[in-house]
Amino acid sequence: MRKPKDFTMKGLAERIGEIERVNIYGRVVGVRGLMVEIAGPIHAMSVGARIVIETGVGRTIPAEVVGFNGDNAVVMPFASLDGVRRGCRALVASASDKIRPAAAWLGRVLNALGEPIDGKGPLPQGSTPVPYRNSPPSAHSRQRVGQPLDLKVRALNTFLTCCRGQRLGIFAGSGVGKSVLLSMLARNADADISVIGLIGERGREVQEFLQDDLGAEGLARSVVVVATSDEPALMRRQAAYLTLAIAEFFRDEGRDVMCMMDSVTRFAMAQREIGLSTGEPPTTKGYTPTVFTELPRLLERAGPGADKGTITGIFTVLVDGDDHNEPVADAVRGILDGHIVMERAIAERGRYPAINVLKSVSRTMPKSADPAFLPDITRARQMMATYSDMEELVRLGAYRAGSNAEVDEAIRLNPVIEDFLRQAKDEVTSIGDGYRRLQQIVNTLATES
Ligand SMILES: Nc1ncnc2c1ncn2[C@@H]1O[C@H](COP(=O)(O)OP(=O)(O)OP(=O)(O)O)[C@@H](O)[C@H]1O
Ligand SMILES: [Mg+2]
């Protein structure tokens, strides 16, 4: 006969202790490229479930179920497949696709699995588990984009004002200065916390970014997630999810978080690699359909929260061969609330940050700009546009000074505006300083002419 049920704490604890811990195992039956097929208790596996493959020589390889093929589960590893043989045991791990962030994670550097890689000892765990892949707050429960956020970069503050909870993309070819701009924002912008995802970076660059660009002071107010280019696609993708998950944790604590990702293109490439190996059809530039469904799911997670906190998202996009119409750039531009375009020609002139103000857009402008300075901003933009139209002619010497007063002004003003837009890595200017300096420039123009 069964014992009568005991619902006291002690009784319950005993009953939990009585539950048999079952380990469910499958077996490796095939390896194809990056994919491992597992036969066995297929009913216990679902897409996204965690599997641990035991190679039998003391090495275990975490993996994730990405699909099914006939009677087998298809899994993708988080590490290299060295040592995997047919018949290896594969443990179906209890679904633990969650992490437990804590305030003590500030100043730390983690890998995609949320493990510390900075040699500063174990990572304290928080009390609430948060999922790697969360859904964004529903559209109607979200707050509106908040007050202007002082990014401490003149060119952005004045011409492309960013608000708390806004999502901006930085679009540029390789080596044009994306990472440096990102580090300036991470160090100085007026947010409570930065969460930085370095996705698919070169290993050498990670240390350079942490030590030279971010520095000890920047790191102290940041959490950095790293997956270098040599890590498996699943790790690179997971690192992007983890970055957003940590940002969401701090947002739900009511903080204004700046979430940065360098770069979204590498996330898309990781998703492409995963898609292609699971048999998805390639479309433009080999990108698979899931790339374009995953991108909005990832980027939408940034933004204002349902309550107090916000996530301001800054995402870099590598535009291959400086082609600003390549598919990932196009898709990302459509999802975000603004784009910052950086140009090689400007960087080659030595004007950093190499932002092309005329080609960049912040969709919260002009509402977010200080109305008192709006006429100055508009005037300066006009001058830049006029100069940009005439630039070729001026350079060729085909423009005769005096033929058009507006063009003459634009030519005179050009070096001053260039100077205004130039900002050294370690220079910090507030939004107010930027406005006043721009006003001065526009005023001298008015008095001189
Ligand atoms: N504000 C700046 N002041 C001075 N130099 C800068 C500035 N921004 C960028 N640079 C120069 O440009 C170089 C490349 O910058 P960065 O590494 O940020 O480019 P990137 O776009 O991230 O490149 P990649 O695509 O290779 O990651 C830097 O090493 C530095 O010399
Ligand atoms: Mg870079």
TrEMBL record:
One GO location term (cellular component): bacterial-type flagellum
Single GO MF descriptor: ATP hydrolysis activity
Keywords: ATP synthesis, ATP-binding, Bacterial flagellum biogenesis, Bacterial flagellum protein export, Cytoplasm, Hydrogen ion transport, Ion transport, Nucleotide-binding, Protein transport, Translocase, Transport
GO BP, one annotated term: protein secretion by the type III secretion system
CDD domains xref list: ATP-synt_flagellum-secretory_path_III_C, ATP-synt_flagellum-secretory_path_III_N, ATPase_flagellum-secretory_path_III
Record has ATP-binding as a keyword: yes
Pfam families cross-referenced by the UniProt entry: ATP-synt_ab, ATP-synt_ab_N, T3SS_ATPase_C
Family: Belongs to the ATPase alpha/beta chains family.
Entry protein name: Flagellum-specific ATP synthase
Protein's organism: Nitrobacter winogradskyi (Nitrobacter agilis)
